[in-house]
Amino acid sequence: MTLLLDPIAVVTALLLLIARFVPVVMLTPVLGGYLVPWSVRIGLGIGLSAVMLPHSLALAAPASLTPSSLLMELAVGLTIGVASAVVFWGLGLAGQVITTSLMGLDDPGISSHPSAVGRTPLSTLLTLLVVVVFLSLNGHHALLRSLHDSLTALPLGQAADFARGGAASEGVISASAALFGVALLVAAPFFALIWLGDLFSAVVQRVMPDIDSAVMKLSTRTVGITALLCVSIASILTFAVDALSGTPDWLDWFYGSMGGGAP
């Protein structure tokens, strides 16, 4: 009880919690995303930190507030945020790559939001579909429970030194590799369809040279990608369900590796 009344301990714990949780809220699309102003996302992170403060103080006294402890908590939050957002980013990246293949490198995307630079309607659609799947799986509750468990496995200011590598660097590398893996798995069938469409357009152009090749190619790509997206949307959502279901297990492994045991 003395700890709860110690203003220095309270302020220290709150600042360390903010350093850990704000990056998670900023990076995870389901808790904010680019459509939510950054000031609102920071406010959500601070509010989440305040909610978690009593639990954190009940576990143990936080370490002293130093630049290294703040950077450590920031690194923990960034790692959790990246791991939680991999599937969202992967499908969004797949949508951007597919649109670039369809329209060319000069396509700027369609968006009226300044922080959505480079996003395309297809990437936004795929990201929002994953958000819906995530919410339907109660993923937001699982993520909040995981953040709650992180305070037990990785006490504030007492997590392993990220400069030494280990599970933190391995986790970031694995998450980054998974990001491109997700994008490749989703985009590969569309790449194949675009190639076949271009081949078909080339054959038609060869047989009927009077046809506008650019219009023919764009029409073939658009119709083919739309049809494939309609056919494969169920498979994409099934893939998203499987990938999102494994996110809490991955975070539990990360907490156990960094804290020396399972939460």
* Helix and strand pattern: HHHHHHHHH
The DSSP helix count reads: 9
Helix content: over 70%
Which regions are unreliable across 5 or more consecutive residues at pLDDT < 50?
Answer: 105-117, 259-263
Task: Please report the distance between the alpha carbons of the first and last residues.
Answer: 24 Å
Secondary-structure-based class equals: mainly alpha
Count of discrete structural domains:
1
Computed over alpha carbons, the radius of gyration is 23 Å
Strand content: under 5%
Q: Name the average pLDDT.
A: 71
How many DSSP-defined strands? 0
Characterize the overall form. elongated
Largest sheet: none
Explain what the structure shows.
- It is a single chain.
- The chain is mostly helical and 263 residues long.
- The chain has one domain.
- It is 77% helix and 0% strand.
- It contains nine helices and no strands.
- The protein has helices at residues 2-5, 7-27, 38-59, 67-103, 121-136, 139-153, 167-207, 213-245, 247-259.
- α4 packs parallel to α7.
- The chain starts with a helix and ends with a helix.
